[in-house]
């Protein structure tokens, strides 16, 4: 059974690219354009969550803190994505398991996801 990846990103083009790349890498991908999906994330039972830092009214880092403070969900790896220059510090302060700096390299995305799931895929450098 394929690992389930939830991607929360408000930019449709980036969301489409991530869905395509992760689908192609063999993951089951569920997407959302805002954080409303988090209300029923426990029902989705994802293996990993990729979330954008800037989601309009919400911040991905706040959502990450909420996930990591919920006992039943804290085991799910969370990857924070952003073009913010201080994304490393933001990710660390909210308890994210990793971060992806935008603009991102597709191979880097699959490497991060694979690493956190213990399924590093072959990537071409």
From TrEMBL:
Modified residues annotated as 4-aspartylphosphate in this record: 52
Residue ranges constituting the Response regulatory domain according to the UniProt record: 4-117
Keyword Phosphoprotein: yes
Originating organism: Mucilaginibacter roseus
Residue ranges the record marks as coiled coil: none
UniProt lineage: Bacteria, Pseudomonadati, Bacteroidota, Sphingobacteriia, Sphingobacteriales
Keywords tagged on the record: Phosphoprotein
Keyword Cell cycle in annotation: no
Database matches in Pfam families: Response_reg
Protein's recorded name: Response regulator
Origin: domain of life: Bacteria
SUPFAM superfamilies: CheY-like
